[in-house]
Amino acid sequence: MPDETLIHDPKGGMPRLLEIMRALRDPETGCPWDIEQDFASIAPYTIEEAYEVADAIEREEWDELRGELGDLLFQSVFHAQMASERGLFDFNDVADTMSDKMVARHPHVFGDQSNAKSAEQQTKDWETIKAAERAGKAQKGTLDGVAVGLPALLRAKKLQKRAARVGFDWPSTDEVLDKIVEEAGELVEARDELSQAEVEEEFGDLLFVMVNLGRHLGIESETALRAANAKFTRRFESIERALATQGKTPEQSNLEEMDALWDAAKRAEKNT
């Protein structure tokens, strides 16, 4: 039976959350929805919660961040509970595995190595340790272990970084920019002469090279695109507000008028 005292203890901390999860999954007294879930059905929620954490950080909404981190933590608890029910592992195993990994990957903090290293050198050491870990898991290929389920922009960068470690990389941004021009030309050609599937393929190639350019410039493509999305949202909302003062909606406007309002919003941002 669930420990009701712990469940209702407002200062119960992590043990309380674990007990709540066990109660929700109890086959006799738990929540029907929680009981019928499995790893596959919960995975999309896990991804969604991670994005909501990133969104709260981007908006600097720290009270929201506390709640979003709790939601993300609950996803780990949910997966661990399902694993425990199958006899695979439990939440303590998850925590211990993470602790072991962090100690092993930081010999300059927890071992006998000097911590008098640059951040760049520590990053290289981190990658060397991770490569050794992959070798221990029989992941022999350079690209083995790059999760398929990652957001496409993030996975593209990780694939490129892995390839770069074995020398498969352009030496500078000049070559990447040349490749972007080449891929853009191939996209135009595909648009004019080839099938929709081939257009999509060329478009993907162009995106992949753009991520590579971002990597060479030290830019996180995912972060840059999120910022561009936020900027577009701000400026388009400015257009809507400006039209509303005239008693109009975007549907009642035209591209020329909205372009002018967009430019005005852009100038206003630069002047603030």
Automatic annotation (TrEMBL):
EC annotation from Swiss-Prot or TrEMBL: 3.6.1.8
One Pfam short name: MazG
Molecular function as annotated in GO: ATP diphosphatase activity
Top EC group: hydrolase
Catalysed reactions listed for this entry: ATP + H2O = AMP + diphosphate + H(+)
GO BP terms, alphabetized: dATP catabolic process; dGTP catabolic process; dTTP catabolic process; dUTP catabolic process; response to stress; TTP catabolic process; UTP catabolic process
Keywords: Hydrolase
Keyword Hydrolase: yes
Domain NTP pyrophosphohydrolase MazG-like, residue spans: 37-110, 176-235
InterPro entries: MazG-like_dom, NTP-PPase_MazG-like_C, NTP-PPase_MazG-like_N, NTP_PyrPHydrolase_MazG
Protein family (similarity comment): Belongs to the nucleoside triphosphate pyrophosphohydrolase family.
Protein name as annotated: Nucleoside triphosphate pyrophosphohydrolase
Species assigned in the record: Planktotalea frisia
Gene name of the record: mazG
